[in-house]
């Protein structure tokens, strides 16, 4: 796998506060990565460091194979962080021309990218007349100008209305489908779950997990069950070695698996024991449940 | 280098306020210069025709035009501090860096623009002075015409130095209004240093020598006031008002030293700062 960004033992201190603590992870080409964490967990600081606007305290990072300077590497990166920042008195096109000059890209890309985000007909309007959703889409167009190797998005849907959120997510998905590597920082679990294949979970500057989203917790899932013979079912689950935790809520039994077991095997076992199930669902924890479980574990 | 200047020019040129200020800083000194050369009344102070006073004679005209034109630098100073202030308030500084401009390039694009405008202003003033001089001057031999042309160099260095100071204050304070306020504070500070030096050395001459090393005073000293010189030409017998008005190499060196320091400090400041 071809590395795009490698971070080694990165630490950032703001006075006595440690915003990022001994963070290491690698971004490989072609995947969609999420950096997940509550507000103030160090997501933006980490991105700020690799984008050369925040100075690191210790540790290091390298772009691509390590032979490119950060300054040159950034010309192959597209990034928007926090709010869209443009010159309010310039039109969309003028703003993008400026970015073209910085990145050394031909002006012909401007119309193409404005079309991708659906702003082509508004290109001669001043930036200050744009709605927040349009500003954010212009920021994405700007980040795409150089056909970047990697697109970095920090809270891209923050503050947008549902329609705006939907538009941005659709654009991100379309870009991901073209094979561009994406790094998406968000505190919205459902956003990361919908878009990302890999995730880095941060809390208070410390990495809790990094890897595939679906392998975030070594869990075999759980069954949701209901049966006429309620007590017998409970007793059986308590004694069976395959099951760990068993919870009872509003007559619905939730049994967590210690070992893999398919729903049909379980059904057959119950049938053999003479328990007829009126409700059987096998599920895996949602990212949100996994995330809370992960952060809770670290609390103790 | 051209790319960096183009970048900054686009930022300035599309902004209405800075466009007007740039126009004013170029047009106003010319209007004054042209008006004073045709009209008899000059700021209501002199009622004589100025041409007759001999101030449009070569070589003194170089001295006079550069001295008065340099007062119009304040208009462009506002542009300089706001071109830093706006980058901070719009957060476009951060975006520029993320887009791939290095911190060094950012400072250089501002500095090159300062040099570019100072050069334009110098060339224009030089040209206008030359033409007005040719028209009014009693002496038109080449050796006399170009005798004190070093005032143009002094004018250029003075502008670059002053705008670099503004750039540094802009970077330091991030807000245009504060940066302009700091210029006033620096002016007062330099007088406090003068007063301190006066206490130590006991005479004004030594105290002025100390003050000559400070940023604002060193820029002012590049082109001394020409009024006394005009008086001198009228009354050559009064030797007690004679003074040293020439442009000296060490005066230029001091201002260039400050310029280098201000640009370097601006860069250091930006490098150390988390945005």
TrEMBL record, chain A:
<keyword id="KW-0813">Transport</keyword>
<dbReference type="InterPro" id="IPR003593">
    <property type="entry name" value="AAA+_ATPase"/>
</dbReference>
<dbReference type="InterPro" id="IPR003439">
    <property type="entry name" value="ABC_transporter-like_ATP-bd"/>
</dbReference>
<dbReference type="GO" id="GO:0005524">
    <property type="term" value="F:ATP binding"/>
</dbReference>
<dbReference type="InterPro" id="IPR017871">
    <property type="entry name" value="ABC_transporter-like_CS"/>
</dbReference>
<feature type="domain" description="ABC transporter">
    <location>
        <begin position="5"/>
        <end position="229"/>
    </location>
</feature>
<protein>
    <submittedName>
        <fullName>ATP-binding cassette domain-containing protein</fullName>
    </submittedName>
</protein>
<keyword id="KW-0547">Nucleotide-binding</keyword>
<comment type="similarity">
    <text>Belongs to the ABC transporter superfamily.</text>
</comment>
<dbReference type="InterPro" id="IPR027417">
    <property type="entry name" value="P-loop_NTPase"/>
</dbReference>
<keyword id="KW-0067">ATP-binding</keyword>
<dbReference type="Pfam" id="PF00005">
    <property type="entry name" value="ABC_tran"/>
</dbReference>
Automatic annotation (TrEMBL), chain B:
<feature type="transmembrane region" description="Helical">
    <location>
        <begin position="111"/>
        <end position="137"/>
    </location>
</feature>
<keyword id="KW-0472">Membrane</keyword>
<protein>
    <submittedName>
        <fullName>ABC transporter permease subunit</fullName>
    </submittedName>
</protein>
<keyword id="KW-0812">Transmembrane</keyword>
<feature type="transmembrane region" description="Helical">
    <location>
        <begin position="249"/>
        <end position="270"/>
    </location>
</feature>
<keyword id="KW-1133">Transmembrane helix</keyword>
<feature type="transmembrane region" description="Helical">
    <location>
        <begin position="177"/>
        <end position="198"/>
    </location>
</feature>
<dbReference type="Pfam" id="PF12679">
    <property type="entry name" value="ABC2_membrane_2"/>
</dbReference>
<feature type="transmembrane region" description="Helical">
    <location>
        <begin position="149"/>
        <end position="170"/>
    </location>
</feature>
<feature type="transmembrane region" description="Helical">
    <location>
        <begin position="60"/>
        <end position="84"/>
    </location>
</feature>
<feature type="transmembrane region" description="Helical">
    <location>
        <begin position="20"/>
        <end position="40"/>
    </location>
</feature>
């Amino acid at each position: 796998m071809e590395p795009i960004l490698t971070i080694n033992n990165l630490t950032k201190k703001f006075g006595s506060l440690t915003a990022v603590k001994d963070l290491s992870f690698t971004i490989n080409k072609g995947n969609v990565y999420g950096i997940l964490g509550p507000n103030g967990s160090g997501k933006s600081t980490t991105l700020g460091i690799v984008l050369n606007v925040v100075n690191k305290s210790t540790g290091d990072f390298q772009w691509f194979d390590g032979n490119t300077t950060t300054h040159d590497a950034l010309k192959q990166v597209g990034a928007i962080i926090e709010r869209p920042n443009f010159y309010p008195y310039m039109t969309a096109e003028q703003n993008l021309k400026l970015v073209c000059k910085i990145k050394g890209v031909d002006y012909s890309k401007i119309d193409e990218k404005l079309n991708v985000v659906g702003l082509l007909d508004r290109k001669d309007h001043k930036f200050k007349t744009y709605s927040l959703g349009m500003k954010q889409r212009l920021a994405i167009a700007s980040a795409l100008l150089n056909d970047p190797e990697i697109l970095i998005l920090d809270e891209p849907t923050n503050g947008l209305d549902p329609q705006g959120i939907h538009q941005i997510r659709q654009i991100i998905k379309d870009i991901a489908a073209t094979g561009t590597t994406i790094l998406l920082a968000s505190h919205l679990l459902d956003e990361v779950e919908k878009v990302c294949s890999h995730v880095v979970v941060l809390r208070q500057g410390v990495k809790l997990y990094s890897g595939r989203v679906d392998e975030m917790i070594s869990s075999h899932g759980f069954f949701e069950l209901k049966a006429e013979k309620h007590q017998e079912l409970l007793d059986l689950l308590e004694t069976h070695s395959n099951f760990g935790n068993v919870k009872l809520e509003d007559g619905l039994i939730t049994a967590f698996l210690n070992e893999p077991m398919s729903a049909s095997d379980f059904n057959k076992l119950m049938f053999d024991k003479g328990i007829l199930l009126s409700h059987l669902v096998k599920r895996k924890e949602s990212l949100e449940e996994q995330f809370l479980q992960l952060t809770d574990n670290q609390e103790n | 280098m051209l790319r960096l200047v183009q970048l900054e020019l686009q930022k300035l040129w599309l902004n209405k306020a800075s466009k007007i200020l740039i126009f004013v800083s170029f047009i106003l000194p010319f209007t004054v210069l042209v008006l004073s050369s045709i009209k008899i009344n000059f700021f209501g102070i002199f009622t004589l025709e100025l041409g007759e006073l001999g101030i449009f004679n070569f070589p003194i005209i170089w001295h006079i035009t550069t001295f008065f034109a340099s007062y119009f630098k304040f208009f462009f100073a506002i542009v300089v501090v706001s071109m830093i202030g706006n980058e901070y308030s719009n957060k476009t500084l951060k975006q520029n860096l993320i887009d791939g401009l290095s911190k060094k390039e950012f400072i250089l694009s501002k500095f090159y623009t300062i040099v570019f405008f100072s050069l334009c202003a110098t060339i224009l003033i030089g040209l206008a002075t030359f033409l007005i001089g040719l028209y009014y001057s009693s002496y038109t031999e080449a050796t006399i015409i170009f005798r004190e042309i070093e005032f143009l160099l002094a004018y250029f260095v003075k502008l670059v130095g002053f705008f670099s100071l503004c750039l540094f204050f802009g970077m330091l304070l991030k807000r245009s209004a504060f940066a302009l306020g700091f210029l006033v504070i620096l002016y007062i500070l330099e007088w406090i240093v003068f007063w301190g030096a006066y206490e130590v050395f006991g005479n004004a001459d030594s105290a002025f020598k100390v003050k000559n090393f400070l940023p604002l005073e060193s820029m002012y000293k590049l082109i001394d006031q020409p009024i006394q010189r005009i008086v001198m030409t009228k009354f050559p017998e009064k030797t007690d008002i004679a003074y040293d008005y020439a442009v000296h190499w060490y005066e230029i060196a001091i201002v260039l030293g400050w310029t280098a320091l201000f640009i370097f400090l601006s860069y250091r400041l930006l490098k150390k700062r988390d945005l």
